[in-house]
Amino acid sequence: MEKISTQMRKWILEYIILWIISKWDIYWAEIIELLKSWDLIVAEWTIYPLLSRLKTDNLINYYWIESDSWHPRKYYNLTQDWKDMLILMEKNWLDMKNSIKKILSK
Q: Is 96 left (phi over 0), alpha (psi -120 to 50) or beta?
C-alpha cells in the first residue's frame, strides 16, 4: 500500500508542479511556498531533483535572472509541447476524478 501511495503522490506532485510552471515562470523556492500554502507540504530537497528530471525529460526549460539584491536565480517555464500535453493531463485527471467519484458513491 505504501508503494501505491508514494506513486500516487509522486504523480500528483509532478502534475501540480507542471501546472504551476504553466501559469507563470517561477523560481523553485516560490514553488515550495505555493505547495506549502496549499497544504501539499513537501521537503525542499525533493523539489529540485524533480525539476532537474523534468528538465532532462525536456518538459521544462529554465533561464537565469541576475540581480544586485540576490544570487542569480533559475526560473522555470514549460516547453511548448508540454503546454499542450498539460491540457491533455488535465482532461485525464478530471475524467479519472469523476470516475472514482462515481465508483465511491455506490
A: alpha
